[in-house]
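Suppose you are handed only these lines of text.
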Amino acid sequence: MYKTDLQGSANDRPARPAVVQTEPADLVEAFEARVADDQFIEPKDWMPEAYRRTLVRQISQHAHSEIVGMLPEGNWITRAPSLRRKAILLAKVQDEGGHGLYLYAAAETLGTSREEMIEALHAGKAKYSTIFNYPTVTWADIGAIGWLVDGAAIMNQVPLQRTSYGPYARAMVRVCKEESFHQRQGYELTMAMAQGTAEQKRMAQDALNRWWWPSLMMFGPPDDNSPNTAQSMRWRIKRDTNDELRQKFVDVTVPQAEAIGLTVPDPDLKWNADKGGYDFGAIDWEEFYAVVRGEGPVAQERMAARISAWEDGAWVREAATVHAQKRIARSEAA
Ligand code: BYC
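From them, the structure of the protein bound to benzoyl coenzyme A can be written out as follows.
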């Protein structure tokens, strides 16, 4: 039988290079020892390439979530029912923008530029949280987002204050303080509606019904289907698994709903005294994966809004760059 040069036989083909261990064992060992000792890894420290890649993936996705996450609430700033509510909402949405900036800056310390990260988002290559692909259809959704979405975010982010990469951990300290205010304002808003007129209470319940399950999905796939958890736990990037955090969120949030007379939309929800937590119903993982694939109810609108904001802001970036260059030139001339 004829064969092409490329095919060759096992004997006449040059031997394939063995998988090369490019990372010096002593450096890997020293890195792992520092992580095991709960010391922070800093930007100039040696780190395995896979650790760096995992961090860029997670931190940039986290940053994108903050920035895309401004859209569902930003949608209601002009329609807030009072000056007080408007001021609170404005401050919250601005905070989310700030969180995105701290996180992009943290990811940049790993050698990936902000432009590259944003390009990956706009090209559909980088993910952002599934939760922001759902619409905010009534004012009660603003309460539900603060209470549930920021509540879920805090549950995930408090342990990240002890993540092994220093700049990410430090960014989380401030983010968590602000998220705590966000969660409280959302709960207070929902409480006001739940104690308001019958129609307001109905709206608060309807928002809880729509946001409950997507909030549980924020924590990611179940542990036995989470490809990244085991390695990220070993590197102490993640300090708790997806299911552990989801359970904590349910345990904290169910009594909050009960306290304001709302019902969590889960007929299987039941206190389990043996485990000291709630058993809850099955999550629709088909829906989760569809939203991750970009098929969420308002995914296209979200991305279109981000891309046009980026394009509309080009003149600001250009002006800031020219201004910075002028300052450098002036200080060099002085
Ligand atoms: N949405 O192996 P897994 C906020 C992906 S914003 C989309 O468990 P990992 C706020 C996952 O990326 C706060 N994708 O992954 C802002 C992975 O795909 P890749 C956002 C998801 O990384 C504005 C695949 O599924 N918080 O607070 O070990 C207003 C397999 O998952 C999702 C953060 O970003 C999801 N929900 O664990 C209001 C926290 N879940 O990358 C509020 C930081 C999973 O392999 N991130 N995927 O292609 C994390 O803690 C972790 O990355 C996750 C996922 C727990 C989210």
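What can we learn from it? The pocket of benzoyl coenzyme A is lined by residues 57-58, 61-62, 65-66, 69, 96, 127, 129-130, 145, 149-150, 153, 156, 217-221, 226-229, 232, 238, 242, 292 (CB under 6 Å). The CA atoms of residues 308 and 314 lie 10 Å apart.
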